[in-house]
Amino acid sequence: xxxxxxxxxxxxxxxxxxxxxxxxxxxxxxAVFFICLFIFWRGLxxxxxxxxxxxxxxxxxxxxxxxxxxxxxxxxSLYVTAGAIVIGVPIGVLTAVFMARFCPAKLYLILKxxxxxxxxxxSVVYGLVGxxxxxPLLHQIFPQEASGASVLxxxxxxxxxxxxxxxxxxxxxxxxxPNHYYEGALALGATHERAVFFTQLPAAKSGVLxxxxxxxxxxxxxxxxxxxxxxxxxxxxxxxLDSARTLTANVALEMGYAEGLHxxxxxxxxxxxxxxxxxxxxxFTMLKRKS
Length: 291
Hints:
A hairpin with a 4-residue loop joins strand 1 and strand 2. The protein has a single domain, classed as MetI-like (MetI-like fold), CATH 1.10.3720. Helix content is about 75%, strand content about 0%. It is built from 13 helices and two strands; from the N terminus they run ααββααααααααααα.
């Protein structure tokens, strides 16, 4: 028996579903808007009171003397993030190439769940392993240093943490490349390796760059793991074996007892971090539109 649907009821259901999705989208946008509004409302007055340039370029952070300069934290964040990129991106991209074009099917069934598992491990676990294993190991390798907690340790931990992001996004980009690119390269006499690295990988560069940007966002926003392995000294690091403090660590370490201008300065630090993340997200959006 054929049952004819009532057009009015179908239209009503469709309108209800559209309204539900629109409400969810608006709720997400409003949540982000109010978070940004709160951070800027609490942080901008401190930046203007201290001086935007003095706050950003000051190299001394001494809350007890009302001296607030976050340049050491900015440099520390940039050093640690750059180190994570140097360590994590080559390994992640090469792993993605292997999984997409070289990995046997049986081995892929093992590697893929491992990568997914790495993405689900909490950052505190990475920090725990880093402080209990990596930091003592670096201290043994470089005994002349006061501690193994350093830019190098933080870079290694963050490099491992961004691997799942880089691998998954890069692999998806490689698999999205049309197969006739590979077949055309083979028809012109290229070997399997040359066809992959000189044809398919360049064709997937937008996706690979997007994975790098997402990895940078993960690294620059990480807190707990960095607190345990970076040393947290509010000074500009001169070497990779020096201690450093990142923007996120600065907020997490001192917000519990800060008050007055000190607390507002920590919110201002969050404003600077927010601007960094915003720039990263804008770059990612531009790359997606270009691809």
